[in-house]
């Protein structure tokens, strides 16, 4: 019985076996402002003073962030204080109007309406502050 032979080509040579190629790809990533020390060393090899430049950039970004948050906090405090002053002025004007309406013997509903403005504002402020906490 004849043995199975590999198929032959024109020159009686076996067919070439297809070769497989593998490609390996790697990537690195990090979170936060600084890369790991090994990456900093690689940056130094590629760019002169690369690690120093990255550190300077991180320090500048941190200083900017601190300044931004500080100015935002100061603006919030100013806005809150301004709101308190405006609310106090409106309340005093309403109470003054109430006293004047009593003095000129206006209808009692006018005095009640004028007093209800600051009371309603105070109740609203208290309820709003409790809901945001």
Task: Give your account of this protein's structure.
With 133 residues, the protein is mostly helical. 67% of the residues lie in helices and 0% in strands. It has one domain (37-132). α1 crosses α2 (50-103) and α2 (50-103) runs antiparallel to α3. The termini are far apart. The model has no long low-confidence stretch (mean pLDDT 85). Keywords: Membrane, Transmembrane, Transmembrane helix.
What's the short story on this structure?
This protein has 133 residues and is mainly alpha-helical. It is built from 3 helices and no strands. It has one domain.
Q: Averaging pLDDT over every residue, what do you get?
A: 85
Shape: elongated
- Give, in order, the helices and strands: HHH
Q: Beta-sheet strand percentage?
A: under 5%
Show unreliable segments.
none
Helix content: 55-70%
Q: Cα-atom Rg, whole angstroms?
A: 40 Å
How far apart lie the N and C ends?
93 Å
The tally of beta strands, per DSSP, is: 0
Summed up, the helix count is: 3
Structural class: mainly alpha
Layout of secondary structure:
Layout: H1 37-46, H2 50-103, H3 108-132
Protein name: DUF2335 domain-containing protein
Organism: Undibacterium arcticum
Keywords: Membrane, Transmembrane, Transmembrane helix
């Amino acid at each position: 019985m004849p043995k199975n032979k590999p198929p032959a080509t024109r020159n009686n040579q076996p067919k070439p076996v297809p070769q497989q190629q593998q490609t390996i790809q790697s990537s690195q990533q990090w979170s936060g402002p600084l890369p790991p020390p090994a990456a900093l060393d690689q940056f130094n090899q590629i760019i002169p003073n690369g690690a120093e430049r990255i550190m300077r950039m991180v320090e500048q970004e941190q200083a900017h962030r601190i300044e931004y948050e500080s100015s935002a906090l100061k603006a919030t405090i100013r806005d809150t204080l301004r709101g308190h002053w405006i609310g106090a002025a409106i309340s005093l004007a309403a109470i003054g109007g109430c006293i004047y309406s009593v003095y000129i013997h206006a209808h009692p509903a006018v005095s009640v309406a004028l007093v209800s403005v600051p009371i309603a504002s105070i109740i609203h402020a208290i309820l709003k502050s409790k809901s945001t906490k």
